[in-house]
């Protein structure tokens, strides 16, 4: 299977549409991390993503009869743009079914290549079902985003370019993983010619379907998938990619949202390219690899797989970058409620920069402050700040890794309610579309009172929402039954320390 895949890669037809993208040295990052770090620039493709390679190669294999009937795909992202451009170049009708929550920038990009866009449903599964209905009705040929050997071969041409463009020492190549088409193609070619080079997959920790499949030695379907890195938000790795990659990949590293945001900044500082979060995923994994192994003086390459991000999402990415680089600690600190306390607290902090300070009067004796402090990367300096504060008599709760604190509490004002009542607090992901809130409210019983609500648009397909509810005692045990009917992802946060300190 490996040899056949390599032959397909070498014979792949991609360059009528795709470009041979350069490898950029990351000079600033290399000096900082004491390794030679290289970035393969798939963000420079005409559709700003590697997906063009696989889509075009698959279409190049179609018969004249198939091309005459047209092609179709269900996609909310980069595959849709790659297919749309490929179809335009070949003069083939293309239909793309996209969920209604797809950001306008991606819808308009697909339409700009001449494809017909159909918006259907609020989830990818609904869009995929509708695509299958259209296939049955019109005879379109479905072009899969990753689970196809010709698509894999097209993506594998990236591996060909890497070895041709960099013939010297190369210790490891880091590849983002969603459905697995990219890593299957790249790993097949590199391991066939240079088995000494490590191929390491990188996944978002909330959509790590490849790592789960390796652990189970079979493909598994994740119960839930995070959407922060939309380009790799896949619940199950493809059948063909897994059959190839499971024996070729040396390791899989998972990273969180903050680490991806930090990698977006790193790519920008070295190349001036604004990567999408899934595009920076492999660099985040590369950095984590160095941290975990202590690698030094090695040559490490990562693939910037795409740069299709909404402009209004950049604020959120920038906000989380300092946390991803471990350069900011978010702390809840209890100080005495009397004049001069803040000045004394700052004196204890010393010459460190205070990045954030949120406070509202709530108690005549004690004040709970939400504070951000600049620290050095690595975690040791953060712990030193906490130790110094506690030694000085300040109770401290470390909220640096608390999603509720970072997404909501730091932006909320208003303090505590005057009236004491039982409140249930949940964090949700709502689809970014008109009617999502009304759908939520419609499913709640009429006698439930919303006591807290916070939402911010992050330019993504899903909005992060914090909701507090005054639930009659008789219904409290059934709260989550109502939420399950709504179908939105949720987390119970009633006992979250950030909420208890600042809002309860």
UniProtKB/TrEMBL annotation:
Enzyme Commission no: 4.3.1.19
Lyase in keyword set: yes
Example of a GO MF term: L-serine ammonia-lyase activity
Keyword vocabulary terms for this entry: Amino-acid biosynthesis, Branched-chain amino acid biosynthesis, Isoleucine biosynthesis, Lyase, Pyridoxal phosphate, Repeat
Pathway info: Amino-acid biosynthesis; L-isoleucine biosynthesis; 2-oxobutanoate from L-threonine: step 1/1
Family matches, as CDD domains: ACT_ThrD-I_1, ACT_ThrD-I_2, Thr-dehyd
Reaction it catalyzes: L-threonine = 2-oxobutanoate + NH4(+)
GO BP, sorted A to Z: isoleucine biosynthetic process; L-serine catabolic process; L-threonine catabolic process
Annotated coiled-coil segments of the chain: none
Keyword tRNA-binding among record annotations: no
Family: Belongs to the serine/threonine dehydratase family.
Alphabetized NCBIfam families for the sequence: ilvA_2Cterm, PRK09224.1, PRK12483.1
Subunit structure as annotated in this protein's UniProt entry: Homotetramer.
Protein name: L-threonine dehydratase
Species, as recorded: Aidingimonas halophila
């Amino acid at each position: 299977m490996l040899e056949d895949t390599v032959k397909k890669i070498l014979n792949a037809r991609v360059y009528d549409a795709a470009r041979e993208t350069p490898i950029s040295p990351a000079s600033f990052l290399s000096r900082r991390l004491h390794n030679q770090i290289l970035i393969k620039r798939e963000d420079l493709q005409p559709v700003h993503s590697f997906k063009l390679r696989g889509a075009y190669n698959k279409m190049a294999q179609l018969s004249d009869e198939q091309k005459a009937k047209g092609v179709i795909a269900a996609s909310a992202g980069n595959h849709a743009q790659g297919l749309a451009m490929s179809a335009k170049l070949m003069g083939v009708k293309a239909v793309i079914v996209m969920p209604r929550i797809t950001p306008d920038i991606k819808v308009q990009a697909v339409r700009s290549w001449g494809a017909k866009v159909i918006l259907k449903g609020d989830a990818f599964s609904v869009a995929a079902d509708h695509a299958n209905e259209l296939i049955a009705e019109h005879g379109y040929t479905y072009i899969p985003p990753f689970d196809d050997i010709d698509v894999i071969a097209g993506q594998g041409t990236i591996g060909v370019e890497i070895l041709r463009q960099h013939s010297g020492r190369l210790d490891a190549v880091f590849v983002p993983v969603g459905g697995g088409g990219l890593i299957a193609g790249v790993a097949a070619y590199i391991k066939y010619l240079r088995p000494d080079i490590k191929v390491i997959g990188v996944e978002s920790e909330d959509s790590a379907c490849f790592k789960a499949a390796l652990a189970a030695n079979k493909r598994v379907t994740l119960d839930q998938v995070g959407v922060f890195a939309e380009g790799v938000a896949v619940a199950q790795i493809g059948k063909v990619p897994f059959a190839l990659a499971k024996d070729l990949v040396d390791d899989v590293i998972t990273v969180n949202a903050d680490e991806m945001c930090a990698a977006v900044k790193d790519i920008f500082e070295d190349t001036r390219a604004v990567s999408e979060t899934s595009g920076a995923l492999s660099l985040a994994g590369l950095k984590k690899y160095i941290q975990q192994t202590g690698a030094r003086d090695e040559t490490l390459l990562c693939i910037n797989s795409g740069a299709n991000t909404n402009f209004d999402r950049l604020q959120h990415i920038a906000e989380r970058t300092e946390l991803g680089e471990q350069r900011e600690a978010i702390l809840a600190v209890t100080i005495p409620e009397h004049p001069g306390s803040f000045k004394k607290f700052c004196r204890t902090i010393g010459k460190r920069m205070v990045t954030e300070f949120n406070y509202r009067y709530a108690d005549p004796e004690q004040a709970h402050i939400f504070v951000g402090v600049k620290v050095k990367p690595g975690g040791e300096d953060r712990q030193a700040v906490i130790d110094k504060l506690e030694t000085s008599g300040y109770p401290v709760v470390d909220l640096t890794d608390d999603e509720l604190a970072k997404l909501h509490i730091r932006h909320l004002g208003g303090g505590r309610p005057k009236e004491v009542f039982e409140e249930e607090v949940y964090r949700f992901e709502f689809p970014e579309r008109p009617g999502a809130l009304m759908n939520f409210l419609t499913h709640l019983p009429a006698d439930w009172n919303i006591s807290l609500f916070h939402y911010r648009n992050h330019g993504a397909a899903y909005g992060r929402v914090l909701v507090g509810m005054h639930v009659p005692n008789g219904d409290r045990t059934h709260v989550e039954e109502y939420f399950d009917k709504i179908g939105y992802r949720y987390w119970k946060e009633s006992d979250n320390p950030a909420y208890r300190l600042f809002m309860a």
